[in-house]
Design a protein that fits this description.
about 160 residues, alpha+beta, seven-stranded antiparallel sheet, 5 helices, globular
């Protein structure tokens, strides 16, 4: 029987389930003064990696251009014995290709609005994402280390 951290570790399938059930990720980049810069973003999972879009002139992007190291956290639960999470340390890839930004933005918007599909957002949704894609970049987090936990396994 596993003990300690191994006893509460999530399987790959459980990680994908947790990431699929949640909408927001906490992302930390390194600020210009060395202090972590923490933000909350809506995200998608693409090819097993967290991806999001954000304004190209945002502080987090300025930070990631200077230093691509990033930490990300998706967590769930309120009671101690309900807590589950995925903590990722890795490198951020900044995506500047318009079609890729639009694609990621479309998926993020669809998830945010709990729509059945991007097409369900209609012309207004497409026009809004297209307009936003002009000002945004996408980010894909490439994990170097992943830590997981599920305190429900302790009971």
């Amino acid at each position: 029987m596993a003990s300690g951290r191994d006893a509460v570790k999530l399987t790959d399938a459980e990680v994908q389930e947790l990431l699929g059930e949640n909408l927001k990720v906490q992302v930390a980049s390194n600020g210009p003064d060395g202090v972590p810069h923490l933000t909350t973003l809506f995200y998608i999972v693409r090819d097993g990696k967290i991806a999001f879009w954000t304004y190209g002139r945002s502080q987090k992007i300025l930070n990631l251009e200077r230093d691509p190291r990033v930490s990300a956290l998706v967590e769930d639960g309120t009671d101690y014995f309900e807590l589950r999470g995925v903590s990722i340390k890795g490198k951020a890839e900044i995506v500047r290709d318009h079609d890729a930004i639009f694609s990621i933005g479309s998926e993020v918007a669809t998830r945010m609005l709990a729509a059945e599909s991007f097409e369900a957002l209609g012309d207004f949704g497409r026009e809004t994402v297209e307009k936003q894609a002009q000002k945004r970049v996408a980010v894909i987090i490439h994990p170097d280390h992943v830590a997981t936990w599920d305190h429900r396994k302790m009971v």
